[in-house]
Amino acid sequence: MTHDIKNILSDLYQIDPSLREHEVKLQPLISELLEARSDLAINPAFRNRLRMILMNKIRDQKVAKPSLGRFFAAGLAGRSMYTMAGALVLILVVAVSVTILNRGGTQFAFEQDIVKSGNNAFGPLTLVSEGGRGGGQETSGQKSLDTVATAPSGTGGYGGGGGMTKPSSLIYPVPQPSYAFNYAGDPISLTDKSVEVLRRVKGVGSMPAFDSFLGAFDVSGINLNSFGASKIQNLVLAGGGDDGYTITIDFFEGFIGISKTVFDWGPRCMAPEKCLDNQPSPTINQMPADEKLINAANKFLKEHGIETSAYGTPIIQDDWGVAYEQTSPEQRAMFYIPDAITVLYPLVLNGQTVYEQGGMFPMGLQVQVSVRNLIVTGVWNMTLQRYESSQYEAETDSAKIISAAERGGWGGYVIMAEDGHTSQRSQVALGTPSRGYLRMWNYNDGSNDELYVPALAFPVLKAPAGSYLPRYIVIPLAKDLMTQQYPDIMPMKGVAE
Amino acid sequence: MNEYADADFSAVRRFHDGASEAFGELYDRYAEGIFRFVYAKTRHRETAEDLTSHAFIKALEHLPSFKSELGGFRAWLYRIARNTIIDHYRTSRPTSDIEDAWDIAGNSDTAKEIETQIALRKVEKYLKDLTAEQRDVVFLRLWQDLSYAEIAQILGKSEASCKMMLSRVLSKIRKDVLVMLLIGLGRVIN
Hints:
The complex is a heterodimer.
Chain A: H1 2-15, H2 23-35, H3 44-61, H4 68-76, H5 84-101, E1 113-116, H6 145-149, E2 179-183, E3 194-200, H7 208-215, E4 218-219, E5 222-223, E6 234-238, E7 245-250, E8 255-260, H8 290-303, E9 315-316, H9 319-325, E10 340-346, E11 348-349, E12 352-356, E13 364-370, E14 376-383, E15 386-393, H10 398-406, E16 426-430, E17 434-444, E18 447-459, E19 472-476, H11 479-485, H12 492-496
Parallel strand pairs in A: 1-15, 2-16, 12-17
Antiparallel strand pairs in A: 3-15, 3-18, 4-5, 6-7, 7-8, 8-14, 9-10, 10-13, 11-12, 13-14, 17-18, 18-19
Chain B: H1 5-16, H2 21-42, H3 45-62, H4 73-92, H5 114-127, H6 132-143, H7 148-155, H8 159-189
């Protein structure tokens, strides 16, 4: 503060030296003004909502942007049409795909959209289910967004009931870890009584345009209609030629994967001298700079109109590099340098990064770029970005959260200290956490809900040499989950005693 | 000096190149500051949120035409926010020459944000008699820690005149304090 004041005065003396005579009076005056500075924090909900509005606006402005439809058209160019019937099917499929996948489509869109549901609308967050839904309206994980959106607050169709396995029996025997996590950050204050859990609305379900067409279509004399009401669940479009890509669309999971058709690998490789599996792996000197890899990924996504507004600034998944650095210089010659590097676009929900349990990196859209020629060889985790949200009781006991982090994370390593040898373990410091989401899976009646639970991400400040630790220990803030995993969690100190 | 000037430049360039997520990066960096600036001028949370939204939407709409060589992004964004506030008060009170809430008696949102309001009230005696432009210099220099070059860009004035403005503000406040002290002393004597 004193430094600020001196700087401010120093600036002003240059233009008005007479002020110097009044320095004694001006100092407390400026100090008073500085102390009155508005430290009122922006409301996080408002901040996130506005971010969403802005991202949607950006999406709407992209009307002239190239689309995935062109991508499909380009990828399929030159493909042989074996039969007229096959051609008709393909044309229809591509035409409908283009319509659906374009940003103007209403069913398979990649912009983020969150629809609020009532409290506890996804049932208990127990992450297991053995028939535990007692009296609910919903019997399947595939329910419509409209149904959920109109669900009355506090219901959601789950009646609870028996069948849940005792938490203690869920813990698999795990090897004793060699790390002792210690929280070294600032005190944590958890005041929110509830957290907004998200569930991804996975698919578009039935595709009437496809279904009705296939139902009336004969393929080589086989009447598809005779099999009853057929639905397309997956669609694989294989592009040929050197520039071909195979596109896999899973309508029920709401997922698209793109992979380059590879002719220079394995049995499909016809020219042995060019086959990659006959060639040595790339050397460390061949590894392109991160910026080049990211530029290649950006260019590919842009050229093919792949929506990225739901994702943050891309990073390189350099886990191989971590392992390489930890390899002794004499063994590095034997180290396998990957042929392709993954550029990761972290998923951002409500302005916050999404993490996986135990993951080295945040989760998000992955673009694989070839080290040898900077060609994109695959795009993964391109998912529908439609979510339902529901309020759940929050865990407010920061000591419990910290203790869970010091045990290595929710469902992660369970460091039991009975052996009293914690001093022999590598000490790993955890820093002050940031807010984020933890992606978790809830298996229910044969379907698996993809949940995004508000969480605290504790950064691993410094991993011990030779370790392969996640960069964050992520603890969900939903009370259900904490109670399930740690029914009677006590601070580590207490356990050690 | 804005420590994020290079990062801003890079984000704007990426936005211009079609990487839409770059605007999210800029938003994440300045949402808090812009909100606080708007709140300081409006002293009402809901109004501040509303105007912050308008400011960012305007910024998004005009970012394609933003030219980094004409000045930094931060100052450009604050200028948009300031103009949004001025437009708001001029539209709601077209017959009055009002540019922010300090010119309106009893506009503070006392039911909420009590702590902030108490802090603002401590300096209200100094700020309420300043012009809106003078208050902006105080808010931007002292509360937002913007450089004089940025303030000059926001207010459309020279750096020297912005410095002079703060200098005069402080001189005026100092004299007002003196007057208040003398009045208080007079009361004690009488």
